Amino acid sequence: MSACGLDFGTSNTTLGTVRREGPELAALEADKVTIPSAIFYRRDGEAEIGRAAISAYVEGVEGRLMRALKSVLGSALLDEATPIGRRRIKFREVIADYLREVKRRAEAAAGTELTQVVHGRPVHFVDGDPEGDRRAEDALRDIAGEIGFTDISFQFEPIAAALDYERQINSEQIALIADIGGGTSDFSIVRLSPERHAKTERGEDILANDGVRIGGTDFDRFLSLGTVMPLLGFRSPMQRPGLDVPSGYFHDLATWSSINRLYDPKTMRDIRQVRREARQPELLDRLIAVIEEERGHTLAIDVEGAKIGLSDAPQSDVSLGWIEPGLAAEIGREDLVRHTDDLATRIAQRIGRCLDQAGLAHGRIDALFLTGGSTQLAHVRSAIVAAAPEARVVEGDTFGSVGIGLTVEAARRYA
């Protein structure tokens, strides 16, 4: 069958194919069914994706790494051009290059051409901007057509996760689906049962659907701004009383999708001028070193790794000896909570809105189905569980539930 479910995520991507025995995620990188949403362009223009892309960057191969590609959808960045070797290409072309290769690998694994796709999408690409949501979905539809899909439709990511969970139950229940991904947090309240699973039209079973543009990359950004960027001059004073070093450089450096902006020669000239007027120029020297060596993604990768490490250990420091001998950012679990607790609170508040939308008290939720990498953060998990404390907590496939659910939907729509 030529139908598939594509979960193009901010951090990771999966693609499921419809098989006779049921939905199956395709191996996209060696035997791995998840692949990082990353692409690396070598100086000659050749591209690598996924773990190979990150490895090429870490190993010092000359070129440009791009991650969190999905986060530019719905923003003006989508049609901005970025230099790749001697040419400039738009971000929508970058996304197309990445997804084209994902599709090619899935087709090789499935042994058939894939022409029909149910594309996952967050409830809101952009908060409070319906027009931005429309532009983002239209862009994904256009890109899917460019890379060879002929039948293209969409499903909300938390609904897809609900379809995966529904395959596991043997009685009717009301489930709150919490999908905390790399770029967005999405929630659905859905009535599920084995009998309902066979229906093709499920509109009446969706009791509420909402989301907020907060995800794992935001936790990375806030943690970086709170622990690493001050070592490079963030919030340090200028010589002129009452002024701090401009913060925009550090926000770009802490944001996956904005890092490459800093490599523009004009930006470097501006930073050097700021350094001359800074009260602590030695801190700006560290920032300049990172940008001159185009190592912004190294910082982002290390901060992300520290965040993940704090799930298992109370301390997860980031070594910055490559910037300056002996330099390190000391990061403890309490730092993660302090710098990102507001994000967890906002996620929990959105669940409250979802319950209000459904007209349900939290005690009416039978199951709380958790999926997405950021549900592994203890304080995020606690905030979500507190919103429906009486519900049974069910662990989904952290990175695969949405892709499986989209594939279930693809089988229904295109069978």
UniProtKB/TrEMBL annotation:
Q: Which UniProt keywords apply?
A: ATP-binding, Nucleotide-binding
Q: Does the keyword ATP-binding apply?
A: yes
Concerning InterPro entries, the annotation shows: ATPase_NBD (IPR043129), Hsp_70_fam (IPR013126), YegD-like (IPR042054)
Keyword Cell membrane set for record:
no
Which superkingdom heads the taxonomic lineage of this protein's source? Bacteria
Q: Which GO terms describe its molecular function?
A: ATP binding; ATP-dependent protein folding chaperone
Q: Record's SUPFAM superfamilies?
A: Actin-like ATPase domain (SSF53067)
Record's Gene3D superfamilies? 3.30.420.40, Actin, Chain A, domain 4
Name of the molecule in the record:
Hypothetical chaperone protein
